Every structure is written in C-alpha cells, then in structure tokens.
Amino acid sequence: METKPPLPPFTRETAIQKIRMAEDAWNTRDPERVSLVYTEDTIWRNRSEFPIGREQVKEFLTRKWNKELNYRLIKELWAFTDNRIAVRFAYEMP
C-alpha cells in the first residue's frame, strides 16, 4: 500500500499540510489524482452519499465534476487527533 506523508500521528502542522495536499489535488479536478490523496479504505460523507474506498470516490467525483463547474475548493482544519483529521469545506466561485 502506497503511503503519502505526512502520516499519523498528526500534529497541527502536519494535519494542515495533509489538508493542503488534498486541497491542491482536488482543485486539479482529476478524480484519479484526488483519490490517491486518500487511503484505500477512506470513508466520505457528502450530503446523502457515503462513498467508501478509492473506486467509489473516483465515481463520485466524476459525477460531481460533470455537473459542478468553475469553483475552487478551500479546506480548513476543523479538528484532529493523532490519527484522524476533520475539515471544513468552502467553495469559491470566480
């Protein structure tokens, strides 16, 4: 399994670094690249959808980006523990 530093246990600084990596990947709008930022067993929640694992994340993002155009995602650290990160999302429209 490929790993993407920084890895747990997280500090405030490494949690923010991990969030920036995900934000940068997201804003490429490339589902394959975005999925690789997350673990193979990642669990997401987006309104009423709950994609689990990289394949479902890629499918979700492909559908999402076929409908939603021209925005930039901004992620902010909400909370973290030694092995989990929670983020707050904001969308910026040009």
Q: How many independent structural domains?
A: 1
Work out the oligomeric state of the chains in this entry. single chain
Low-confidence stretches: none
Average of the residue pLDDT scores: 92
Helix % is: 25-40%
CATH first level: Alpha Beta
Radius of gyration: 13 Å
The string of secondary-structure elements, in order, is HHHEE
Taken from the alpha-carbon principal axes, the silhouette is globular
Instruction: Tell me which CATH architecture applies here.
Output: Roll
What does the main sheet amount to? 2 strands, antiparallel
Structural class: alpha+beta
Q: Kindly report the spatial arrangement of strands forming the biggest sheet.
A: 1-2
In total, the number of strands is 2
**Head-to-tail CA distance between termini:** 37 Å
Strand content: 15-25%
Count of alpha and pi helical runs: 3
Look up the CATH topology.
Nuclear Transport Factor 2, Chain: A
